[in-house]
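[job 4471] stage=fold_predict status=RUNNING
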Amino acid sequence: MRAWLAACFIGSLSLAFPSIASAQKTKVMVYTALENNMLAPYKAAIEKAVPEADVVWFRDSTGVITARVLAEKSAPKADLVLGMAATSLLDFKTAGLLQAYEPKGASALKPIFRDPAAPYSWTGTAAYLGVLCFNTAEGAKDKIAVPTSWKDLLNPALKDKIVMPHPASSGTGYLMVAGWLQSMGEKAGWEFMDGLHQNIASYLHSGSAPCVQAAHGERTVGIGFDMRGAIEKTRGAPIEVIVPKEGTGWEIEAAAIVKGTKNLAIAEKIADWAATKDASEVFSKYHAIVAYPGVQHLPPNYPANGEAGMIKNDLAWMAKNRDRILAEWSKRYESKSAPKKQ
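[job 4471] inference complete, writing structure tokens
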């Protein structure tokens, strides 16, 4: 009888403890522009490193998240932002929306992934860059050679056969526009985009969609980001993933604590985790270029000149000039913007 009662008591404790542990978890609201397939693995990794955290994602495109954070300035709802463009975080920092905090171990990261200006407020986690996804089957039908230069996209045979991300909606779209203006010079950059516009079928509200459409043969060229191109080619799509010979624009995904969070201690622990080698190992499953030195797992079909093709890029300039650039871009090219999903 005593043995039976003891067993029941132990069993009741085993049922009670998980609920107690669960009750001790703190919901942490994290705003992100990560791809949907990354959310569950990132959540699991964060919660393993910070067991008291229950990560709750709010996920949307870079443009939407950026606008949301700025709109919530007087009453922030996010505890952290993670997987967001560093240029957006620079906007948040200028607006006084980020908590000053340098994660433990951040000094060991590659220099481009560290906030260069005091007070230290954001930390890069991974980098992504612009590529061309060229459907070789569709190109062969129209006798269009594989492009190797940005100027090859001005070929009249490509009229209505190119898609790219809308720069106000997508971080990938903005890094492309800012990259052209920086590498070509503003006058030549706008002239290039004027010519490119003649061949654009639509500006899409997603960084992934252009390479996906090219992979499916819906368009001949998708201007998108590196990892999506590599994934689609590995899945068997008849595409070439190309970094043009002039080089390409790029951006950094970063993490930061939102000023005013009521969960500062846990937010700091998550920020600390994001700067670790273990975190970079997780990030490297989805990005070819990550913050921690020596961590790299290039996926199949990743362009051989990817990292070497990154142009000299001024993230602060990109952030400072965003509104001006997007206003000019919209004035010139908004007519081909794809309808936004309701």
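[job 4471] summary: Residues 34 and 173 are 15 Å apart (CA to CA).
[job 4471] exit 0
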